[in-house]
Amino acid sequence: MIGNPAYGWMGMVSIPYFILVELMGPVLEIGALLLLISGMWLQIVDVKLCLVLALLLVLYNSLLSACAVMFEVWFSRRAYTFREVTRLLLYACSETFWSRPMNNVFRIYGLLQVVGYGKKKDHKNGQG
Questions:
Q1: Which residues make Cβ contacts (< 8 Å) with residue 112, sequence separation at least 6?
Q2: pLDDT tens digits along 29-54
Q3: CA–CA dist 15, 3 (Å, integer)
Q4: Residue 63 per-residue DSSP state
């Protein structure tokens, strides 16, 4: 099915995208983090440049998330209170630090379970 024109859009675009981006994304991110840490340890990577790029990444992610929240608030038919909007904006600006790493950990755990390194349940008596 992957890359087969007989399956149309699903075989040519959707499944290859899922495999390349969604499935391999956390593996590549963890690999990039390990490479970055080892590069800093070997003094190959400029630490100041990494800090500036990390700050720009956090600011961009926060701005994008805050814009999505404000878009929802402005164009929604629901009346949001000031407290709700403030809470949503705080979550949006902090999601870089908790949501993305948590998501990657869960996805890596799922990949490990698929490969066979996760917990296996005993199907006879239903215990793990």
A1: 118
A2: 889 989 999 999 999 999 999 999 99
A3: 8
A4: H
